[in-house]
C-alpha cells in the first residue's frame, strides 16, 4: 500500500514555567492512502499535539513529516490545499449563517463560484442542514455545528481529512451520523485521520489504530488484531492491557 503520510522520529517539546514537557516522544508511523487511521488514548496522550503537527499548525521539535510527499516544515503551503481539518474546538463564525460560513471557506480555498454553490447545496442536503442554511450559526445546536464544520472542511475537495475528537460531547444519534459521513468520504477515496478517546468509535471506523499514551505510541495495528493480541473482548480492554491505564476523558 502507498503511504500518503510518513512520520519519522517525531518529537514535540514544550516549555512551561521553565520546564521542558515532552508531549510527543519519538514516534514513527505511516498512514496509507484511502484508509481510516485512528489515534486513540486519553487526554494528554499526545494525540492532539501530533494532529497539530500533521496539519502544519505547529512545528516539530525533532523528526520529520511528509504529507503526500511534501515536507511539513518546508512545503506547508503545498499541503494546506489538499487537507481538510475538523478541529476539536469548532471555528464557525456565529454572526454568519451556515451558508455564509461555507461561502467564506470556499473563497479562502479559491473554489470557483459556480462549483462552490453546487457543492454547498449538495453538502447541506447531505448533512440535513438545508432548512437551516440561512440561520446564524450562533443558534445552532452542538450537533448542527459539528455537521457544518465537517462540510466546511471538505468544501474544497481535499485528499485527506483530519478530525480531532470528532464526536466529543455529541449525543449517540449525532455520533452515528458523523460516523456515516466518515464512511461516505472514505468510500469516495479520501484518507481520514481521527483522534479520539472513544474506543467504540475507533473500533467501528478505523482500518488501523495507533494507541498513544504519555506521548509514546505503544501499539499500531488493526482493531481486531489489537484485541486478539491482548486477549481482550473490546478495544477499551485492549487499551488497558497495553498501557496499564484506564481511558480518561
What does this structure look like?
With 249 residues, the protein is of the alpha/beta class. Helix 3 packs across helix 4 and helix 8 packs across helix 9. The longest helix is centred in the last third of the chain and has 16 residues.
**In the CATH hierarchy, what is the superfamily?**
P-loop containing nucleotide triphosphate hydrolases
Question: How much of the sequence is in beta strands?
Answer: 25-35%
* Fraction in helix: 25-40%
The oligomerization state is: single chain
Beta strands, count: 10
**Principal-axes shape call:** globular
The Cα radius of gyration reads: 18 Å
What is the number of independent domains?
1
Order of helices and strands: EEEHEEHEHHHEHEHEEHH
In whole angstroms, how far apart are the ends? 34 Å
The description of the largest β-sheet is:
6 strands, mixed
Individual helix count: 9
CATH third-tier fold name: Rossmann fold
Mean pLDDT: 91
Q: What structural class results from the helix and strand content?
A: alpha/beta
Which stretches are low in confidence, meaning pLDDT under 50 for 5 or more residues running? none
CATH class placement? Alpha Beta
Shape-level CATH architecture: 3-Layer(aba) Sandwich
Strands in their spatial order, largest beta sheet: 6-7-8-3-9-10
Amino acid at each position: 500500500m502507498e503511504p500518503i503520510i510518513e512520520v519519522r522520529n517525531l518529537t514535540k517539546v514544550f516549555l512551561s514555567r521553565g520546564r521542558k514537557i515532552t508531549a510527543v516522544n519519538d514516534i514513527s508511523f505511516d498512514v496509507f492512502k484511502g484508509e481510516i487511521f485512528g489515534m486513540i488514548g486519553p487526554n494528554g496522550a499526545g494525540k492532539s499535539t501530533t494532529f497539530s503537527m500533521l496539519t502544519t499548525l505547529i512545528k516539530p521539535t525533532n523528526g520529520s513529516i511528509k504529507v503526500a510527499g511534501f515536507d511539513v516544515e518546508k512545503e506547508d503551503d503545498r499541503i494546506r490545499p489538499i487537507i481538510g481539518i475538523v478541529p476539536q474546538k469548532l471555528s464557525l463564525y456565529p454572526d454568519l449563517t451556515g451558508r455564509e460560513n461555507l461561502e467564506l471557506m470556499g473563497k479562502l480555498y479559491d473554489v470557483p463560484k459556480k462549483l462552490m454553490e453546487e457543492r454547498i447545496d449538495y453538502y447541506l442536503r447531505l448533512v440535513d442542514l438545508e432548512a437551516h442554511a440561512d440561520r446564524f450559526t450562533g443558534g445552532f445546536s452542538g450537533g448542527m455545528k459539528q455537521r457544518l464544520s465537517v462540510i466546511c472542511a471538505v468544501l474544497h475537495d481535499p485528499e485527506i481529512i483530519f478530525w480531532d475528537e470528532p464526536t466529543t460531547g455529541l449525543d449517540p444519534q449525532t455520533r452515528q451520523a458523523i460516523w456515516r459521513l466518515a464512511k461516505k468520504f472514505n468510500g469516495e477515496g479520501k484518507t481520514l485521520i481521527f483522534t479520539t478517546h472513544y474506543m467504540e468509535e475507533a473500533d467501528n471506523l478505523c482500518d488501523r489504530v495507533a494507541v498513544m499514551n504519555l506521548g509514546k505510541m505503544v501499539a499500531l495495528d488493526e482493531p481486531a488484531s489489537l484485541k486478539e493480541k491482548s486477549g481482550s473482548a473490546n478495544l477499551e480492554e485492549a487499551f488497558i492491557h497495553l498501557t496499564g491505564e484506564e481511558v480518561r476523558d
